[in-house]
Design goal:
mainly alpha; Arc Repressor Mutant, subunit A; three-stranded antiparallel sheet; 7 helices; transcription regulation; DNA binding; Tscrpt_reg_MarR-type_CS
């Protein structure tokens, strides 16, 4: 037989302060903002079966057809395992094609298929709507400031990242 839970003592002022410090930490707030961003995106793009990571991959591949798989990982700031997982999902749906690069058989080139390009086009409006929803609580000035601060933070601390971010050239 289960016993009823024993009520715990009321949290002390020091534990309240500890929680307040946790909830004000940039890492906590950035993780929470990312969760909300992903949820808003998936709410808008859910009918298309597209995640933020997949949308990012399709977008980069549209701009750089035939990009090496490793280059795609760097362009998105993903590690090799993450980009492989994303690509396998896209490939299973017939949205991308992978194959050895002609110049270097060790590198895997990735390209959008016609279906991948069509889905990316279809996703533009809902993705933009998700962006507007996410930024709606902020004024235009605050939006610009937030983006500037996030770019400064990520740019200055890039060498601390587990996966490098290197936008493709050209």
């Amino acid at each position: 037989m289960l016993r009823p839970a024993v009520p715990t003592a009321r949290p002390s002022a020091s534990s309240d302060a500890t929680l307040a410090r946790l909830y004000a930490r940039p890492g906590f707030l950035l993780r929470r903002a990312h969760q909300i961003s992903a949820a808003v995106f998936e709410d808008e793009c859910g009918a298309l079966g597209l995640t933020p990571a997949q949308f990012g991959a399709l977008t980069v591949l549209k701009a750089h057809p035939g990009l090496a798989q490793a280059g795609l990982a760097r362009a998105l700031g993903f590690d090799k395992v993450t980009v492989l997982r994303v690509l396998r999902g896209l490939e299973a749906r017939g949205l991308v094609a992978r194959g050895a690069k002609a110049a270097d058989r060790r590198h895997v080139a990735v390209s959008l298929t016609a279906d991948g390009l069509a889905l990316l086009r279809q996703a533009q409006r809902p993705a933009e709507k998700a962006y507007r929803r996410l930024m709606a609580p902020l004024t235009a000035e605050q939006q610009a400031q937030l983006l500037d601060l996030l770019q400064r933070l990520t740019g200055e601390l890039e060498d601390q990242a587990r996966a490098s971010f290197v936008p493709p050239a050209g």
